[in-house]
Amino acid sequence: MGLSEKVDTNKNKNNILFVYLTMTDQEQIQYLANEVKNLKEQNSSLMGMFDMTTGYLEKLKKNLEVSEKKLSKANKNLIDSITYAKHIQDAFIVNTAYLQRLIPQSFIFQKPKDIVSGDFVWVAEQNDALFLGVGDCTGHGVPGAMLSIFVVSMLNQIVQQQKNTSPAHILGLLDQLIESNLARYNETIRDSVEVALIAYNKNTKQITFSGAKRPLVVITNGQSTVYKGARVVLGTEERRIEPISQQIIELSPNTSCYLFSDGFADQFGQETDSRFSNKKLLQLLEKIATLPPDKQAEELQNAFVSWKGEKTQTDDVVVVGLSFQ
User: Beta-carbon neighbour count of residue 23 at 10 Å?
Assistant: First the structure.
């Protein structure tokens, strides 16, 4: 039997070692030489595959680096654009400094989910009335911000053009303007807004409140009263459950008023994975109501950050507090 026949036969029997031991010295040398040759060929083939794979990975790495640079540049351009958009939105939205010039004992705690916000604060003056509204537009980020600018523009237009500027009438007109303007060219648009709106009469020292889904909280000597807004979401016929009404509130000494979006109450907490809730927010407002305005804003900031922890912010947040006394 020849060498190859011996090897093949015994490979089938998985007994190569036995065959090797039965070979002559010359056969063993030849066998080992063949094995070395086979190993060299295998190694050469593997090295070729390695070089080819390395080359492919290097090319892939370079392509990824180029893509990363492009994405980084695109992201920077996007952030720059949104940041500039915030400057535009800030020109429409009232800030704390402006509000405190009109109402010294006041504050705005605002925390957008993104750079720009769908929540807004609006202020206007007409004769002896001071109007203040807090709104929560559909969504957040750029879409919410665009809608907030539109709503603020509509509110300014209403106050400037209408003789009847009761809060309920203003919200009714705003409801019509949102629906008619946003659906004029696109019937699929269903954007909407929730608003809490007050009118403060400087002579009578009364507040007239009207709300669309958003409430007004009035706290006197630590006791709170919640005035609920109508079950209406402005701009959408499907969610007009009841008529928009208004209430007149007599202000007394040591009274604070709060208007806010739903972002604070809806924020999930890190420890409990549950929402902060309207109940906890009301308790917090009762606790801080006697503090100076800036301190109240600080306490809200601390409570929100502590509750949220490492959780992602759920929505835009705005809380406005004020005292007319």
Answer: 15
Three-class DSSP category at 190 = coil
Four-residue CA torsion sign, 113, 114, 119, 125: positive
Pairwise CA distance, residues 67 & 86, whole Å: 28
Rg of the chain, C-alpha, whole Å: 36
Sheet containing strand 106-111, edge to edge, reads 106-111, 317-322, 255-260, 216-220, 223-227
Q: What is the pLDDT of residues 120-163, one digit of tens each?
A: 999 999 888 899 999 999 877 888 888 899 999 999 999 988 87
pLDDT interval class at 1 (50, 70, 90)? very low
Asked if residue 30 and residue 121 are part of one domain, the reply reads no
Q: Is 275 exposed, middle or buried (0-12, 13-18, 19+ CB in 10 A)?
A: middle
Give the amino acid at 188: T
CB 92 within 8 A of CB 153: yes
Global pTM value: 0.79
- What's the token pair of residue 157? 């237009």
Domain ranges, residue 71: 1-92
